[in-house]
Amino acid sequence: MAIIGRVVAALDRLRIGHRSSCLSSGIRMKYLIFFALILSLSAAGGAHAAGEDFSQWLAGLKRDAAAQGVPPATLDSALNNVAPIPRVLELDQKQPESTLTLGRYLANVVLPVRIEKGKTLKAQNKALLRAVSDRYGVPTKTIMALWAVESGFGASTGGFKVVDSLATLAYDGRRPDLFRAELINALKILGHGQFGSEDLKGSWAGAMGQVQFMPSTYLNYAVNYRHEGQPDIWHSQGDVFASAANYLASLGWKRHESWGREVTLPARFDSELIGLPTKRSLADWSKLGVRTLAGAKLPPSAIQGSIVAPDGPGGRAFLVYDNFRTIMKWNHSTYFALAVNLLGDGIGN
Predict the structure, then answer these.
(1) CA-wise closest residue to 253 among 140, 152, 122
(2) How does residue 10 score in pLDDT terms, banded at 50, 70 and 90?
């Protein structure tokens, strides 16, 4: 029962505000989902055996990384001077647990000033964004919104050395298996030779660059826009945009489809119909009294959607489609997905 309680407490944090310290809203929420999945493995304590000091643990980590193909020279340069960072453990163990309503969350994220900045930056990067959008089928407004939510348009990427942070969390954190795997992935990135340990900067939990990718996400989805070496999600605008778009496209984004819209529900609407598991045609939703914000019937369409109302039947309601679900694969939170899509709509294509 104690484990269940800890899982529930962790998942409750999905409604916390936009940013805690250097960890973005998006990446923080992803970790909590991972935490729920692996908690049973790590509930007994840290990754190291009783009495095993950091140097002993690090020696074992080096053996595992070498067995996965990380060059010895990389292991030496990246790990010889690494040491646990007390601040990282403090941040990991003291995540805020306050609960926000959707309205408060959106007020923290979908800011008018952020929308205006997004419009300005979109205009400045118009040609590049259009080329990336055409290549991957992801709207420019969605790329801009993800960039905004994950790192404040690149302004808040974190100042921790990723290898040191991940080593700290893998050795003595609450989720050692997750962070040990991510640490080895970070070493694999270094093993490619383009970046050094000083280059891999990010959040205290290892999320990197302007799109806040974990090392595993970087290895699987980051792309170099000009096909010239490793993706540089820290400095190259083309790589930042292309990596975000490639990740979203790989998760299933449907070109030329919308994410959804805000709607109104009739009085006495059946609350059992609210939620992503229930999908119906727009015609069916219209028959049930679902209307646009202007009070009109929903437009005829073959697309199917679900009703989400994060604050319950009395709160704001949204009719969402498959692309909304795709955003939730990036970050499994209805709050996050709504914030990204509403921010994107504000920025516009």
Answers:
(1) 140
(2) very low
